[in-house]
Write a structure and sequence with these properties.
By secondary structure, the protein is of the alpha+beta class. The protein contains 16 helices and 19 strands. 35% of the residues lie in helices and 20% in strands. The longest helix is centred in the last third of the chain and has 16 residues.
Length: 465
């Protein structure tokens, strides 16, 4: 047995940490640490109990936490609303969780520049609501829009239902400010819609999952609310393969939809049970679509294409209440599928031409392995979310589910897709960097990490390890 002679006790470390956090709070009680270390939404088991949970309130607090981390060689786990599903911000044994949730001010909304400047703890939906008061809106709309933060959205490059028209988070971030691992602050990008000076470090930070620095301010694009009435509708297809073909035709028609959401027959049945509806009576797969400022001509084009691809029971509405119900129906897809079961929801993005083959493959895979796969996704941008479920009383992920995931990932890469479209990598998928990126790019990723964080303090074991 090896004896370790520690230079500092836990009491020494915590006393120093508390001396460095002047505006925020430091919690070390077990109840708080367990609550903030173990996210029930993430699949993969407990990763470790953190040493301290620090809720920062200023840049100086962030610098103080990082100063402590450098002095004692302690990992720092960035966290905001703690809604990652890929073990992206769970605690690690002995680490410090640095929460920016209290840094939640909207610092500016500029109608003239069409930008907002926000702190990382601002909730996506709250920013959107405030922008709409000035005739603008914030376009990225992940399923977690009502509770996920802008800081977390930026760190994971979150997507959402409107990505087909407005892009993911990366397409809406103009600039950000961050504290580096060595305590320096950097201001990247700005508020101009074009910028070509220097390397694009802003976009390097978007999707970096807290491994390069702690973001404390973000400048995002805002869009003017479109003129005209919004139109939403639903259509039903015999299966997801035909639905995907119809989606491709709509996307290429020139009507520029803002939503093309697909739900397979299994998911529709689960929704009916959850919502007490009867959508599954119509057909095997459901498409929910939206057109902003939808002219009669655009609606007619969509109707014709749906008819051409054998869309059935097509309904269209301009009523805001009915549209809200349809949008909520899509958001309720996850709790409907998850209800009473253990689950793993995946997140692949395909080249648009490979969406239909992927839908077909998932159906065949479920039949081959004798499991039920619930498939939904943002069909307009090729983002597929197959969900694998098993009995609630079985704690460990069954081998057949693991095999289904492995085969799904390899098929995704074979078709030229990515195994993480919008949920990030975290610890759940970081062993797939080499297969997806290739050996050379995999090494470059580690070299970039070392440049920004040579002591490997920031969110270790996430993103690239």
């Amino acid at each position: 047995m090896m004896t370790v002679f520690s230079a500092y006790s836990d009491e020494d470390i915590l006393a120093y940490l508390k001396s460095q956090v002047m505006d925020g709070t430091v919690a070390t009680d077990e109840e708080t640490l367990r609550k903030q270390s173990f996210n029930p939404n993430a699949t993969g088991g407990e990763t470790g109990l953190a040493r301290a949970f620090v809720s920062v309130a200023s840049v100086a607090d962030i610098q103080g936490v990082l100063r402590t981390a450098r002095k004692f060689h302690i990992a720092v786990i960035p966290q905001t609303t703690f809604s990652s599903t890929v073990i992206g911000s769970d605690g690690l044994t002995g680490a410090i969780i640095l929460s920016t949730r209290k840094m939640n001010k909207i610092l500016e909304i500029s109608k003239e520049d069409s930008v907002a400047v926000v702190q990382p703890g601002v909730v996506n939906g709250d920013l959107d609501q405030e922008a709409r008061k000035q005739g603008l809106f914030y376009a990225p709309d992940p399923g977690s829009k009502p509770f996920s933060s802008i800081g977390g959205n930026v760190s994971t490059n979150a997507g959402g239902m409107s990505t087909v028209r407005y892009g993911a988070t990366k397409d809406n971030v103009l600039g950000l400010k961050a504290v580096l691992a060595d305590g320096r602050t950097v201001s990247l990008g700005g508020r101009t819609l074009k910028q070509a000076f220097g390397y694009d470090l802003t976009q390097l930070f978007v999707g970096s999952e807290g491994t390069l620095g702690i973001i404390y301010e973000v400048t995002v694009k805002l869009m003017p609310i479109p003129l005209g009435q919004s139109v939403m509708g639903v259509a039903f297809f015999d299966d997801m393969l035909v639905l995907a073909q119809g989606v491709t035709a709509i996307r290429m028609s020139g009507v520029y939809p803002t939503m093309l959401e697909a739900l397979d027959g299994n998911t529709v049945v689960a929704l009916d049970k959850y919502e007490h509806t009867h959508y599954a009576d119509h057909s095997g797969a459901m498409l929910i679509f939206r057109l902003e400022g939808g002219s009669p001509e655009n609606v007619q084009v969509v109707r014709q294409l749906l008819d051409q691809y054998h869309g059935q029971n097509v309904t269209v509405t301009t009523d805001e209440t009915e549209q809200e119900k349809l949008e909520q129906l899509r958001r309720d897809m996850l709790p409907a599928v998850f209800a009473g079961r253990n689950h793993l929801m995946e997140d692949m993005a395909m080249p648009l031409s490979k969406l239909a083959p992927m839908m077909d493959y998932l159906q065949e895979l479920g039949q081959k392995l004798g499991i039920t796969i619930y498939t939904a996704g943002h069909a307009g941008d090729g983002n597929v979310h197959p969900t694998f479920v098993w009995d609630k009383d079985v704690d460990e992920v069954p081998p057949v589910i693991i095999e289904a995931l492995r085969q799904t990932f390899w098929k995704t890469l074979e078709l030229g897709g990515t195994i993480s479209g919008e949920h990030a990598v975290g610890m759940l998928k970081n062993q797939w960097n080499n297969p997806e990126l290739g050996e050379t790019v995999d090494q470059l990723q580690h070299q970039i990490k070392t440049l920004f964080d040579p002591m490997n303090l920031l969110n270790p074991k996430r993103k690239i390890d």
